[in-house]
Design a protein that fits this description.
The protein is built from three helices and no strands. It is mainly α and 71 residues long. It has one domain.
Length: 71
């Protein structure tokens, strides 16, 4: 396989991983919002919880790294 083909495959893989991570992040956010509604938390409290969520922080860091590799 040529080097160009490997780079193209890598870019396609990176794009797929970015898409999957974005979907996973969105699912977490939606689940937290739904839980907040069920237990009647204020929107401010829910947003505060989302900002402090370690899983979202890891996803955001991974997305930033992948997007820099993509460019």
């Amino acid at each position: 396989m040529s080097e160009t083909s490997q780079q193209t495959a890598s870019k396609a893989e990176i794009n797929q991983i970015i898409t999957e991570l974005e979907q996973y992040r969105e699912r977490i956010v939606n689940e937290v919002l739904e839980m907040g509604k069920k237990i009647k938390l204020s929107k401010k409290a829910v947003n505060s919880h989302l900002e402090a969520n370690p899983e979202i922080a890891r996803i955001d860091a991974a997305l930033a790294q992948l997007k820099s590799q993509q460019n």
